[in-house]
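Design a sequence for this backbone.
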């Protein structure tokens, strides 16, 4: 899908991947509607601050974007949060908050945006997942669960709406140099993981890969490409990968 002139609604746009992606899309000529819990007004783009875990705000966001631009061509569900706790003892309120933001907010916004896209037979949903949607990370079990669900939702959504001219793309970042780990709800990652950033990417580099994926109607963007090695190992040598992950988790506890 071409980006120039398209109306893009982007969540989680105030920092990290979202901020970089807003800049990349603006350079490519997109007309932007940006939201985050706290976001400054912009002289060119439409911005609306609010809590995406609130269904009423999600409805307000879609209505305000349509009032400003008249349509939504691309919805990018980028907002998300993490939780570093074992699943069997995770804080219930934090788990529900994470699922609400990572999965249900994306689902609800999609349900609000897709009818207009289907009417025009034009549109794309981009869901920002994670390498954890492909390989479950035991220090990040329930976060992985939200991203596995988001991945399945994306695939089904694409097949459901293909005949109506709509497309859906999943993005699976590996480690990205942002403040994501500092902003999780509870906990911290294993020290070995926090220090092992040899294969990390940056938010601007990832943003370019996402924009290229949109332009090429990709089904999936996995970046950095080194993540495919982990996925291949998980699929072909699952016991070995599990043993390595189990040791990381034991050392972390």
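Sequence:
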């Amino acid at each position: 899908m071409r980006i120039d002139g398209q109306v893009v609604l982007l969540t989680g746009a105030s920092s990290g991947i979202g901020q970089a992606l807003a800049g990349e899309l603006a350079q490519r000529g997109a007309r932007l509607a940006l939201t985050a819990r706290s976001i400054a007004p912009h002289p060119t783009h439409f911005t609306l601050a609010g809590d995406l875990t609130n269904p009423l705000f999600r409805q307000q966001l879609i209505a305000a974007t349509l009032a400003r631009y008249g349509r939504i061509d691309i919805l990018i569900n980028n907002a998300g949060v993490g939780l570093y706790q074992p699943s069997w003892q995770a804080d219930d309120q934090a788990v529900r908050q994470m699922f609400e933001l990572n999965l249900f907010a994306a689902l609800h916004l999609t349900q609000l945006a897709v009818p207009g896209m289907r009417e025009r037979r034009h549109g794309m949903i981009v869901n920002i997942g994670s390498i954890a949607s492909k390989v479950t990370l035991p220090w990040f079990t329930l976060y992985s669960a939200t991203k596995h669900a988001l991945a399945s939702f994306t695939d089904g959504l694409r097949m459901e709406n293909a005949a109506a001219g709509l497309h859906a793309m999943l993005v699976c970042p590996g480690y990205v140099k942002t403040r994501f780990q500092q902003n999780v709800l509870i906990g911290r990652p294993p020290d070995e993981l926090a220090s092992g950033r040899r294969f990390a990417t940056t938010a601007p580099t990832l943003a370019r890969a996402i924009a290229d994926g949109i332009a090429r109607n990709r089904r999936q963007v996995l970046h950095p490409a080194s993540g495919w090695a982990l996925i291949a190992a998980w699929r072909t040598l699952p016991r070995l990968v599990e043993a390595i992950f189990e040791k990381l988790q034991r050392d972390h506890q």
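The chain has a mean pLDDT of 93.
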